[in-house]
Amino acid sequence: MINPDKHRARKRFGQNFLHDPAVIQRIVDVINLQQNNHVIEIGPGKGALTKLILERVDKLDVVEIDRDLVSVLTTDLGNDKRLTIHEADALTLDLSKFGQDLRIVGNLPYNISTPLLFHLLTHKACIKDMLFMLQKEVVNRICAEPGSKQYGRLTIMLQYYCDVDSLFIIKPGAFSPSPKVDSAIVRLTPLAKPRYELSDNESLKIIVRAAFSQRRKTIRNTLKKIISEADIKELGIAPEIRAENLEISDFVKLANHYHQLKINSL
Ligand code: SAM
Question: Fewer Cβ neighbours under 10 Å: the N or C end of the chain?
Fold first, then answer.
């Protein structure tokens, strides 16, 4: 058996464990759990959030990559029939096998938070909502407004598919070991109906990536290999502005046009 107190935090797994009971309670309260919810916790670690969540729901699946922590959790909580512990990588997790209306929660490993969010978006159809602790700076990017420095690829891809709410900040002292930066809690709720009609997800990704590839340049420049200046104007968008000044609806217009161009060229 592995003693949880002897477990050395592993940097490569982004391990910063919550140890402040008031903070842990506050996070679990804000999830607003109902008994019949099916919760998936990513990165349960030593179970700080897990134990409180288990007091409130009938079904909890946890996904942990670190085998030693899986062993700690199994010793501590393995007898609880409501809990299923998966030793797995959340980045390759197939959420559809868990069913529908899933509530995903976690104090996410910061080193993989962006790819993990993109991965989870591919499963949005079976997700009711997600409540995550992330680096504050990442939450600011997710919730950014057009025209700000934080507004970028992460903003567009998440706000197109989800309602996003930044809830509160958590200081480094709530963790052991303490991270160097502040953390924040964000709620992401996938939209039942998309904000704007999009013909093709891949085209949106391509446009957003190209538009933000060089933030200081105008979209006339960053998009020139894929959409002409004349076409950008035709869509009612000024070619001389930068990506950070486009609304999400503009990105969707550009993506739909780009998709049409691809179809026409077949
Ligand atoms: N939930 C615990 C807490 O709040 O104290 C631990 C949070 S710690 C920031 C992140 C956790 O995610 C660690 O337990 C780490 O081992 C786990 N983790 C890291 N990468 C992972 C991955 N790819 N898939 C699943 N779990 C992962």
Answer: C
The SS3 of residue 169 is strand
Ligand 1 centroid, distance to 100 Cα (angstroms): 23
Give pLDDT tens digits for 88-106: 999 999 999 999 999 999 9
**CATH number corresponding to 201-265:** 1.10.8.100
- List the chain domain ranges: 4-190, 201-265
Task: State the angle between helix axes of 113-121 and 153-161 in degrees (0 to 180), rounded to the nearest 10.
Answer: 30
pLDDT tens-place string over residues 184-195: 999 999 999 888
Residue to probe by mutation, ligand 1, list 24, 26, 65, 104, most atoms within 8 Å of CB: 65
The fold for domain 4-190 equals Rossmann fold (3.40.50)
Atom of ligand 1 nearest to the CA of 41: 1
Cα 63–Cα 158–Cα 145 angle in degrees, nearest 5: 135
Q: With a 6 A CB cut-off, is 45 part of the ligand 1 pocket?
A: yes
Report the distance separating Cα 25 and Cα 47, nearest Å.
13
Strands 38-42 and 59-64: parallel
Tell me how far the alpha carbon of residue 58 lies from the centroid of ligand 1, in angstroms.
22
Q: Are strands 83-87 and 59-64 parallel, antiparallel or unpaired?
A: parallel
Is this prediction's pTM over 0.85? yes
Tell me the C-alpha to C-alpha distance, in Å, between residue 210 and each of 63, 108, 250: 34, 28, 14
Spans of the chain, pLDDT less than 70: 1-5
Return the residue whose CA atom lies nearest to atom 21 of ligand 1: 65
Q: 120 CA distance to ligand 1 centroid (A)?
A: 16
Ligand 1 atom showing the smallest separation from residue 13 Cα: 19
Cβ atoms 220, 239 nearer than 8 A: yes
